[in-house]
């Protein structure tokens, strides 16, 4: 299993953003550029402690500290982690929740159409 894409909204210093992981990736940048925030967002979704913590996030984890809008409605944090290259056990476990990923266009394949899922350019 490997991460192909992470999409983050309203988390710490990231209002909205998407990071593509086309293979082996190294995040490089100045301090406070968001490198650790990307990894902490991934940990929220995939980390081993995500189910055991009583409060995974607090008010400091919201972008600019804003967790309620002007109307008093909550502003959600959103983190989507797209994983590909699942092993056989993971494929069996997630069988009803799989979508197909086009490696070349870096996009989900609607369907999945049978003629596209057997191509070398797809991953599940």
Ordered list of secondary-structure elements with their pairings:
Layout: E1 2-11, E2 14-20, H1 35-46, E3 78-84, H2 88-93, E4 100-102, E5 107-109, H3 114-117, E6 122-123
Antiparallel strand pairs: 1-2, 1-3, 4-5, 4-6
Give a verbal description of the structure.
- With 124 residues, the chain is α+β, with helices and mostly antiparallel strands.
- The protein has a domain at 2-84: 3-Layer(aba) Sandwich (Rossmann fold), CATH 3.40.50.300.
- Helices cover 18% and strands 26% of the residues.
- The chain has 3 helices and 6 strands; from the N terminus they run ββαβαββαβ.
- The chain has helices spanning 35-46, 88-93, 114-117; strands at 2-11, 14-20, 78-84, 100-102, 107-109, 122-123.
- The chain has a 3-stranded antiparallel beta sheet, with helices on one face. Strands 5-4-6 form a 3-stranded antiparallel beta sheet, with no helix packed on it.
- A hairpin with a 4-residue loop joins strand 4 (100-102) and strand 5.
- The radius of gyration is 17 Å and the shape is globular.
- 6% of the residues are buried.
- The model has no long low-confidence stretch (mean pLDDT 86).
């Amino acid at each position: 299993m490997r991460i192909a894409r992470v999409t983050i909204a309203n988390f710490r210093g990231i209002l909205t953003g998407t990071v593509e992981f086309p293979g082996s990736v190294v995040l490089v940048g100045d301090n406070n550029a968001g490198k650790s925030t990307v990894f902490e967002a991934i940990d929220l979704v995939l980390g081993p402690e995500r189910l055991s913590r009583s409060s995974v996030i607090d008010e400091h984890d919201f972008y600019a500290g804003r967790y309620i809008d002007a109307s008093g409605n909550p502003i959600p944090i959103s983190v989507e982690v797209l994983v590909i290259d699942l092993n056989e056990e993971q494929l069996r476990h997630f069988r009803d929740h799989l979508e197909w990923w086009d490696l070349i266009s870096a996009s989900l394949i609607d369907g999945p159409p049978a003629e596209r899922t057997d191509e070398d350019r797809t991953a599940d």
